[in-house]
Specification:
The protein has 8 helices and 2 strands; from the N terminus they run ββαααααααα. The chain is mostly helical and about 160 residues long. The protein has one domain. Helix 1 crosses helix 6 and helix 2 packs antiparallel against helix 6. The longest helix has 21 residues. It is globular, with a radius of gyration of 15 Å. The N and C termini lie far apart (about 40 Å).
Length: about 160
């Protein structure tokens, strides 16, 4: 089944993750499950190893679908040119830094999904200005590790019942 991403058929489909699973399992599912890693990760170090090896373009496409953003925006978040990504085959791998950022985006999304318990509600939250982030949209902070960490901190505050 082809799904439209960024105006072009990507050949990558997306299924909603099991929101009752652990953050690690949801992260794995958001990254494409077996597309990302043959076996479900048993420890966080598995994500580090996968990031160092580089994730495939199709894994990045899967994450873009999960975040409901076009590939052009995903490329920008990963500090890559859209042209470069467009020329990549789906099995070509990203560098370790870009792969690590994508994995951390998925981890924050997984955390958010366990808190919000609804994919659409969480996607809207990501795309809406947030007072705790000086009015910035959480998704706009995903382009750096510091930004991702700030979004994660806000999610933890929400989980703990602190107005954020």
């Amino acid at each position: 089944m082809a799904v439209l991403v960024g105006g072009k058929a990507s050949g990558v489909s997306w299924r909603q993750p099991d929101l009752t699973a652990s953050v690690e399992k949801i992260t794995w599912q958001l990254l494409g499950g077996k597309l990302f890693m043959a076996k479900e990760p048993s420890a966080n170090i598995d994500f580090l190893v996968a990031g160092n090896a580089g994730i495939k373009k199709e894994v990045m496409q899967h994450l873009a679908l999960a975040l409901d953003i076009p590939m052009k925006d995903m490329a920008e978040l990963l500090s890559l040119s859209y042209k470069t990504i467009s020329r990549m085959r789906k099995t070509d791998r990203l560098g370790s830094l870009e792969s690590s950022l994508a994995i951390e985006m998925a981890r924050v999304m997984a955390k958010g999904l366990t808190i919000f318990e609804d994919v659409e509600v969480f996607r809207r939250w990501l795309k809406k200005g947030n007072r705790a982030l000086a009015g910035k949209r959480p998704i706009d902070l995903f382009h750096t590790p510091t930004g991702i960490n700030n979004v994660h901190s806000i999610l933890v505050r929400i989980e703990e019942g602190v107005y954020s």
